[in-house]
Every structure is written in C-alpha cells, then in structure tokens.
Amino acid sequence: MWRHEYRGLLWPFALAGITDVVDGFLARRWHASSRLGAYLDPVADKILLSGAFLVLALTGAIETWLAAVVLGRDLLIVAGAGVLYLAKSRTAFPPSPWGKVSTFVQVLFLMFALGALAGLNVSPVVTVLRFATVAVAIVSLADYTRRAFGSAAIP
Predict the structure, then answer these.
(1) How much is the pTM?
(2) What is the 3-state secondary structure of 93-123?
C-alpha cells in the first residue's frame, strides 16, 4: 500500500476477507469456537482493517475523515470495553451483529477501493460503500454503546 502497488494487493486482501467469513461460518456451523479464537479473530480483523485504513489515508488514497470515522469507532469501542472491564461491571464483550456488518462493509469498501486504485472501473460502487461504511460504523458504535451502558442485564 505504501508503494501504491494496488493491483498486487487486491487478491490477497480479497482472500483475507473471504477466509475470515468462511472461518466464522465454519466455527459456528461446527460449534468449533474457542475462547482464544473469540479474542484473536476480532483482533486480527482490527489489525488488517485499521492498518489498511490508516495506510490508505496516510498515503492520500482515501479520505482522512473516512479513516478517522472507522478508527475512531474502534478506539471508542476498545476504550469503553476497557473502562467496563476495569470497573469490573463487564468482563465479556460479545460481538454485536452490527459490528459484524460493519466489518463486512469495511472489507467490501477496501476491496473495491483497492480495485479502483488498481484501475478497475468500480468508482460508483466505491462511493456507495464509502457512505455505507460510515453509516454502519456509526450504527454499530451506537449499538455497542447501548449494549454496554443501556442495561446491566444485557449479556
């Protein structure tokens, strides 16, 4: 990404996104999830996605405000989880359905953005996904906030 070699990044990034979806599906289907996997999978997602948004913004390939929304959402969620953990009011932070949708839309946006940067004619899709990424990020942040602070009874 630093070298703007987007064509070479498109397929590995798409493969990473697809394998993440397949891995989650298979883990649920075969009840093969683990406590370690429940922590590592979202961490791996955040490293891939946050790193991609950050590098693309720093190189001017995507808008800085877009990366700020995505990274800010993640930072607020992690900070909120940390506060709740330290306050001992919550020790489990299960993924929100909206969080999963947000991750999926971010992966789609990045795949199509890399495609556009590689010269593919997908700019209209990138525009739609850019605003879908922001909308779903905001909705998922609100959902995590509601789940964390809205009721002590929410698991």
Answers:
(1) 0.88
(2) CCCCHHHHHHHHHHHHHHHHHHHHHCCCCCH
